[in-house]
Design brief:
binds flavin-adenine dinucleotide; 7-stranded mixed sheet; alpha/beta; 3 domains; FAD/NAD(P)-binding domain
Length: 564
Amino acid sequence: MQAYDVVIIGAGHNGLVCAAYLLKAGYSVLLLEKRSVPGGAATTEESLPEEAPGFKFNLCAIDHEFIHLGPVVEELELEKYGLKYLYCDPVVFCPHPDGKYFLGHKSLEKTCTEIARYSERDAKKYAEYTEYWQRAIGAMIPMFNAPPKSVLDIVGNYDVQKLKDLFSVIGSPSKTLDFVRNMLTSAEDIINEWFDSEFLKAPLARLSAELGAPPSQKSLGIGSIMMAMRHNPGMARPRGGTGALVQALLNLVKSQGGVVLTDQQVERILVDDGRAVGVRVAGGTEYRATKGVISNIDAKRVFLQLLEPGDVNGLAPELHERLERRIVNNNETILKIDLALEEPLRFEHHNHRDEYLIGSVLIADSVRHVEIAHSACTVGDIPDADPSMYIVMPTMLDPSMAPPGKHTLWIEFFAPYQIAGKEGTGLRGTGWTDELKNKVADRVIDKLADYAPNVKNSIIARRVESPAELGERLGAYKGNYYHIDMTLDQMVFFRPLPEIANYKTPIEGLYLTGAGTHPGGSISGMPGRNCARVFLQTHQPFSQKLREAGNSVRETLESVLRIN
Ligand SMILES: Cc1cc2nc3c(=O)[nH]c(=O)nc-3n(C[C@H](O)[C@H](O)[C@H](O)COP(=O)(O)OP(=O)(O)OC[C@H]3O[C@@H](n4cnc5c(N)ncnc54)[C@H](O)[C@@H]3O)c2cc1C
C-alpha cells in the first residue's frame, strides 16, 4: 500500500494551497481528486471541443478578489510557477433600464465622477461608504488569514495600518456598536441608508448578494465589502482563466514532489483506534497517511458520507446529528451558461464603449429585481420571468481564451437546486431536465438581448449546466459552491460548527479545509493556508510554537513602534 505523510481528499484550489505549504515544510503529500480535471470550482476547460474548438471557459469562478487579501500568491511565489494576474479596470458595469448606468472603475475618484453625472449626493456618499468598508476590510484581514481560534496568529497579522483600520471602525463604544449593527443588518438596509439612486443601489445589492442570499437578509451587511474590494485590492483574473491559478499550484506541488491523482473518488476514510490513517477510493485501492488526512470537502460530506458512524460516535456522539440538522444550505445555487461568440456584446442603449466589457456586467434593474432573483430560489421557484444575472466576457481582457477575434461569455444565473412541486423528477429528483435548463437559458439570453441585442446572432455554441448538474460535478450538497451557506451564523468560529471550527476534528489526524471552513467560499486560498498552519503547529515541538508566537507579536509591536 502506498504511504504518504498526508493524504488530501479533493484537489480544489484550497486542497492544492494546503498541499503546497505542507510540501514546502518537508512533508510528503498525495492529493486524490474525483474528477479527471483538478481544480474543483476553479477550472478552465475547453468544454465545447466539437462545436467551439479553442474556446476556453471558466466553468465556475472567474473574478478573483479575496485571494488578494492574503499572502498566498506571494508566499508561494506563484508567478514563478506561471501565474499572471490581469487586473480589471473598469471593474463593473450595470446598465439601468432608464438609460443611466453604473460604471465602477478601480479608482474610487473616477467612480465618483461617473456617479456624479446623475447624483452629486450619491457620489459624495459613495466615497464615504467605500472608505468605511475598506477600513472594515483592513480590520478583518488579520482574522481571515488565521485560524479563528488562534488568537496569537490573529494578533500577529496586525500591522500598524490594520490596527489603524481596526480602531477607525471599532475605536470607541459608539463606533463599535455601529459596526456590530452593520454586521447584524442587511445589505439592503445599509444601501438604503447611504444612497438615493436606483441605478447605483441595484448593482451594489447584486454584488452584496453574491454571498448567496437576498439583499434583505439580516446579518449579511458584510456583503457591502464586495464592491469595496474592487477598488482595493482590486479585481483580477489569471491570464488563461481561473484554471491558470490551479495550473500554477499544480506546477508548484509537483515540483516539490507532491502527487496528484485524478479520477480517484474517496469513498472511505480509514480510522484506526480514533485516528485517521488513510483513505479508500472507488475500486478499492487504499492509501495510507502516516501523519494526517485533510479534507478539501466540507464536514457534512466527510462525516455523513466518508466515515463509518462507529468511528465517530464514540468520540463525538452528537456530531453526526448536528452536522445533518444544524448546517444550513439554503436552496440557492447557479444555472451556468457559457457562450462561444462571434463578436463582443454591444450595449446599444447605453452609449456602448468596449471598456464596459472589461469587468463584470450586472443585469440588475432594481434592488427588488435582485431580491426576487435570490428569494425565489429559497422557496424553489425559478426567477426567470425577468432574469437578473452576472455576466463576464473574459476575452475582452484576455484574448488568449478564444480563437482570434472571437469571444466567450460567462453567465451566472441564480436558480433553485430543488424546484418546488417537481420533487422526485429530473436529475436526482430536483426537477431539473435538459429541456427545462435550456428553456431557462433562453429566457436569460432574451433578457440580456434587451441590453445587448447582438448577443443572439453572435452565438456559435453554448453550454448550459443546471444546478443539479453543477451539484453532481462539484459533489457539493445542493450544488452549494461555498460548501455551506455564508451566513453570519456559519462564519468564523461557527464554520462549520463551533466544535470543529479550527480545522481539526475529534478524529485525531483528520483535518478540514476548503470553502466549508473559515473564512469560507470563493477564490482565496485562505482556508488551505490556515489549515496548513494548524497542521504544522500540531506537528511542531512546543518550543517552536512559542518562538513563532513570539515572532508574530514582536513583528506587530515593531510595526507599531516604527510608525510612532
Ligand atoms: C458558477 C460559479 C461561479 C463562481 N464564481 C466565483 C467568482 O467569480 N469568484 C470567486 O471568488 N468565487 C466564485 N465561485 C466560488 C468558488 O469557485 C468556490 O467557492 C471555490 O472554488 C471553492 O474552492 P475549494 O477548493 O474550497 O472547494 P472545491 O473547488 O469545491 O474543491 C473540492 C474538490 O474536491 C473534489 N471532491 C469532492 N468529493 C470528492 C471525493 N469524495 N473524493 C475526491 N475528490 C472529491 C471536487 O471534485 C473538487 O475538486 C463560483 C462558484 C461557482 C459554482
